[in-house]
Amino acid sequence: xxxxxxxxxxxxxxxxxxxxxxxxxxxxxxxxxxxxxxxxxxxxxxxxxxxxxxxxxxxxxxxxxxxxxxxxxxxxxxxxxxxxxxxxxxxxxxxxxxxxxxxxxxxxxxxxxxxxxxxxxxxxxxxxxxxxxxxxxxxxxxxxxxxxxxxxxxxxxxxxxxxxxxxxxxxxxxxxxxxxxxxxxxxxxxxxxxxxxxxxxxxxxxxxxxxxxxxxxxxxxxxxxxxxxxxxxxxxxxxxxxxxxxxxxxxxxxxxxxxxxxxxxxxxxxxxxxxxxxxxxxxxxxxxxxxxxxxxxxxxxxxxxxxxxxxxxxxxxxxxxxxxxxxxxxxxxxxxxxxxxxxxxxxxxxxxxxxxxxxx
Length: 360
Prior knowledge:
The protein is α+β, with helices and mostly antiparallel strands. It has seven helices and 16 strands. The protein has helices spanning 6-19, 71-76, 178-189, 195-208, 277-288, 295-304, 356-359, and strands at residues 27-36, 41-47, 52-56, 62-64, 82-96, 102-124, 130-136, 141-144, 150-154, 216-227, 231-241, 247-257, 263-264, 310-312, 316-321, 335-340. It has a five-stranded mixed barrel with strand order 1-2-3-6-5.
């Protein structure tokens, strides 16, 4: 599924804005020190290319803030532990720090943008290890050791607003009454994972092979998956670390009345009894040639089935079993079964639940 999220749109707009400032490439990095004299104030940066440079906070330089960091207040009293980005003016000079280090120094072209900041001692692990967090405006939060080693990158849960999929209706197509109700549902749902548990697992991975370790990633993204005249479907894709080489993807579908925003329990979408949904879907998949024929896997699926594993798309319904839910696939990738609407789904689905493009 190709998604065009608000974060990507924001990134594009920022890139267009920044590019318009001139021909010089932008420079970004972490402020690691402040050089202050009666004549000038400069931020000492560790750049993305692992170089140290300086940028002057000139009187006419505007500072864009982030979250609770006020730009003008930061300009008046700057400190280390923030990430910034700026476009340099063509003039360049040098600066010698108090310890005699000579650095390339720049003047910003009109403004400096704060796009990240450090929170020290943000998380304590079970063995007493303390982690800092590095929060960014676009790329989520990174959890790292005191020496700067990144352990986990977390994208904050996003959607369902401003998430679009080609040829599908979106959050924007809900009624005005429904929008705040659906938004509240996802706000209350929050993260579908235990962040502390994920950090503990990643820390264990790091300790086993620190030389081979690279930061792992967790994200949760909700976007539209299908719609009918009465129902809007959203799918939440959850990405978690599985081991140092693999990620684990899980998909959870939710249905809402598009006029009221009321959550529709997945069992209400079917005409058959709730206890028969899994068997009926697997029988249709087997008849259609897309389901498993192995009786062991069939039995495992019936035992592991949860109604929220059923994901609606315009052309079919899938039952997506996350990694670890089927004993015979415990250490492999997830397992899924797909049934087209033309394969008899209309016999077990409410007519109003079938997406528009397939209900014709």
